[in-house]
Amino acid sequence: MKKANSLDWLKGQTDIRSLRAAVCDLNGVMRGKRIPVEQVEKVLAGGLRMPLSVVGVDIWGEDIVNSPLVFATGDADGLCEPIGRGILPMDWTAEPTALIPLWLREENGSPFGGDPRQALAGVANRFRDLGLRPVVAMELEFYLYDPTERRPVAPVSPVTGKRLDADAVLSIDELDDFGAFFGDVYAACALQGVPADSAIAENGIGQFEINLMHVNDPLRAADDAVLFKRIVKGVARKHGFAASFMAKPYGGRSGSGLHVHFSLLDRKGKNVFDNGGPEGSDTLRHAVAGLMEAMAETTLLFAPHFNSYRRLRPGTHAPSAAAWGYENRTVAMRIPGGPPKARRIEHRVAGADANPYLVLAGILAGALVGIERRMTPPDPVTGDAYALKLKGLPPDWASAINAFAAGAIVEATLPLMLRDMLVACKRQEMATFAGQVTDFEYETYLDMV
Questions:
Q1: Residues 137-162: what's their mean pLDDT?
Q2: Confidence band (pLDDT; 50, 70, 90) for 1?
Q3: Which of 56, 292, 399, 432 has the most CB atoms lying inside 10 A of its own CB?
Q4: Do the Cβ atoms of 197 and 214 come closer than 8 Å?
Q5: Residue range 150-178: mean pLDDT, rounded
Q6: Are strands 333-335 and 324-326 parallel, antiparallel or unpaired?
Q7: Does residue 112 surpass a pLDDT of 60?
Q8: CA 56 to CA 333: how far, in whole Å?
């Protein structure tokens, strides 16, 4: 039997005439090339080249002004290496095609420090050196909306023909109304090896969540999330909708999060967060303490965009302070209940708009430092964390950028090239936003002042 993503499989797909070969940039956007199918073996052998600067462009795809990658090096190429997922079918495009995901290396073969996947690999290697292996699962929320409108509005139900007009949290009927869409999402995930699990209707109109099953490889977990987002957006277009992972597409409705569950296995396969009881081990508490210590300087990885900070507000089902607790969804780090062998940390800060590679790199970096330094967290929060006076997250985009730029834990755990590239990228984006005058500002001030 031909494996679905193998070279032999591709040779049997006579309707596929071109492929997509792409890397993931700092913003989580896939950028690359359309290549003739005849060049597939060259790509799989690592023979494709792209400018190293491609992963460092801003959200609009513009080069970063005065970037040393562009100007000091003459915009040098790097080596594009397949990440090991093979050839991934895509049937939602105008004509059938497939994707080959790549990551970047320097000309001498060393990992390129500005590649977000390479940054995550570096942190994962630090855990490997400690004899630990992260086990990771992600939950991603997204909105379906009507693409014919200038601003997002709820989609029309394929069954009733009526536009959705109410929050329908955990509604089975709403899931059934969009059953054809979900069926195609699960089918595409199966073809690409993305372990999609349960789906629910979330709090917002047209908002859904799909959980990805846990895997014992953080790189694969992040790959799954990046591929899943492309699948959802592509399948939505196929069905006449649009899908968005924007953190806060509606000012008055729920934002979309990317929650990360993780535990750590030792060399014998034992969960080191498990002490046989509900409270978890000392190692779990060390990890929590590191996450809290790193929170301010890593928030940019969890909330990387201007819009991201509309989601991180008190009382909005998103955390607003660096706090932890047991079975408490008002805190940033929740310790779920359940059997001791499944003891884990749920990190609830990231928005669905964030780059999964950088989200995991930031989470694991904080946990790593806490474990290495045997740090002790404050007492867990019980009850409503929003009602307490706790150390808040950076309140805005500029504060998060500055904290990331100056962060000691960031400097100790992530490539300095990635830090500098991301700071330059975000400062350029922030300057662009600052130069825009919104319609609401005109409506408020033009005739009144």
A1: 90
A2: very low
A3: 56
A4: no
A5: 80
A6: parallel
A7: yes
A8: 30
pLDDT of residue 410: 97
Give every CB contact of residue 441 below 8 A, 6+ residues apart in sequence: none
Q: How far apart are the first and last CA of the chain?
A: 73
168: confidence class by pLDDT, cuts 50, 70, 90: low
Structural domains of the chain ordered from first start = 7-112 (3.10.20.70), 123-414 (3.30.590.10)
DSSP label of 373 = T
407 exposure class (CB count in 10 Å sphere: 0-12, 13-18, 19+):
buried
What is d(CA 10, CA 35) in angstroms, rounded to the nearest whole number? 14
Average pLDDT of the residues in 197-202: 86
Radius of gyration of the CA atoms of the chain, in A: 22
What pairing do the DSSP bridges indicate for beta strands 97-105 and 18-24? parallel
Q: Distance (Å, rounded) from C-alpha 254 to C-alpha 247?
A: 9
Say if CB 242 and CB 147 are below 8 A apart: yes
Nearest Cα to 300, choosing from 425, 413, 434, 125? 425
Q: Are 429 and 300 in contact (CB under 8 A)?
A: no
Q: How far is CA 258 from the centre of its chain?
A: 7
